[in-house]
Design goal:
Helices cover 28% and strands 27% of the residues. It is built from ten helices and 16 strands. The strands form three sheets. Strands 1, 2, 3, 4, 5 and 11 form a six-stranded mixed sheet that branches. A five-stranded parallel sheet has the order 8-7-6-9-10, with helices on both faces. A five-stranded antiparallel sheet has the order 14-13-12-16-15, with helices on both faces.
Length: 330
Amino acid sequence: MYQEIYQTLEETGKVKTAVMLSGEMTGKRCMKKDGQWITDGDVWTPYLEQLDEIEETKVIQTGGVRILTEVFQKSPRLIILGAGHVSCPTAKIGKILGFHVTVMDDREEFLTRERFPDADLLIQGSFEELSERIPVYENAYYVVVTRGHKGDSVCARQILKRPYAYFGMIGSRTKVKLTRERLLEEGFTDEQLDTIHAPIGLPIGGQLPEEIAVSIMAEIVQEKNRRQTSFADEKIAKEILGGRRGVMITITEKQGSSPRGTGSRMLVEENGCVYGSIGGGSVEYEAIRHAASVKCAEVQKYNLSVSDNRNLGMICGGTVEVLFERTGCL
């Protein structure tokens, strides 16, 4: 299933998975794609409703079973709708922060490379064409900064029908209120509209376009980092998508000051090549050694305490639980 996980991640920028960590079902895995759970058996049926509500990487215990839920995210896309004076610094800061930046506007004279030298994509066209011109992408951050509430409404009704990580809309409270009332009349619910950040940005008192851009991107960064997610190592993804086999080693839980957190992983290939890291040091060394003997999924716990004779000779203290999975068995 790892190939499908990384392929979905390439396509949508976000994927949710879960794997069992206890009992005979250790290593059983599922993933959510296109709103549906893909499972390797009916064993997952009692847990799917609860998994739907989880949006971060962590271990849960339910029905006597321990489950690691993981949310992978990569390549966040910043989609700016409107090419006015606030959009220029927002696009620049977004690019500095590692976003793929798209700017769309219906005014050709505003949408130029001189004004947006850092944008990855400039789309000139009516906002009515948003759904046709901008593909659906789960890890997308929408910034609506059109020149009026009519454009805001056109964008909002299309964005609300697709997945997104963030949706913010600029404007005065009166403008935002008018847009909300119009959308409610069209059948959108209060619950849907409550997901919109409006007025947009953190309240830092900015007046200049550059200051407003800082407040917008600060709020986006805050939202992006609100939940713990799993790091999608590009080297591991490349090897898995290339059909490499080996043992995937994932930190499922840690206590104390171990160097890497839940969701950190590395791939140990059959030929001994290692991609990624679970923190280096003795834990990583022992995990790589153990990988050679792994036949199918299993969980191991490493003690980092110097007060225990079974420790790994480290002084940082704590414990690290690690899941081993053979990629050919998934």
